[in-house]
Amino acid sequence: MHFNYQEKTAAEAYIRSLGIVPNHNFLVVQRGLAPSLHALLKTDLLYSTIFSKPYLLIFTSTAIVLKKTGTDQPARYFNHQEITRFRAGELRLTPVDCIWFKASKNYCFYIKSCCCHSRRFF
C-alpha cells in the first residue's frame, strides 16, 4: 500500500501524539486473514471489502502499536511480553510481504513487496 506525502505527514503527526518519535518505525499495511487464505482470496472483491482493512503498524522498543486508519478507534498496544510469536517475510506465490504475530489472537498484515527477494517464511 502506497501513501502520499500528506498521508505520511498525518501518520507522523498521529504517532507524535502518542508520544512516539516517528523514525522509519511505522508501516501502512492491510490487515487480512491467515496467510494461506490470503493467498487464495486476495483477488476476491468480497475479501478485500470485508476482511482487508488498512492499519498503521508502529514498532517501538517496548511494543507494537496498531491503529485502524480512518476511524476514531484508539490504538492498541501489544507489549513485547504479550507477543508469543512473530514472523515477517514474503508470502509465497504472491507479490506481498506478511507480518504475522500472536498476542491474544493471531494478527496478519500484508504489504506489497518492494522487490523480488528469496527469503520465504510462509
Care to describe what's here?
The chain is globular, with a radius of gyration of 14 Å. Strands 4-3-2-1-7-6-5 form a seven-stranded antiparallel sheet. Strand 6 (96-102) and strand 7 form a beta hairpin. The chain is of the alpha+beta class and 122 residues long. It has three helices and seven strands; from the N terminus they run H-E-H-H-E-E-E-E-E-E.
List keywords for this structure.
122 residues; alpha+beta
Topology readout:
Layout: H1 5-17, E1 26-32, H2 35-41, H3 45-50, E2 53-59, E3 63-68, E4 76-79, E5 85-90, E6 96-102, E7 106-112
Antiparallel strand pairs: 1-2, 1-7, 2-3, 3-4, 5-6, 6-7
Number of helices: 3
Name the structural class: alpha+beta
Q: How much of the residues is beta strand, in percent?
A: 35-45%
pLDDT below 50 for ≥5 consecutive residues: which ranges?
116-122
Indicate the radius of gyration in whole angstroms. 14 Å
Topology as a string of helices (H) and strands (E): HEHHEEEEEE
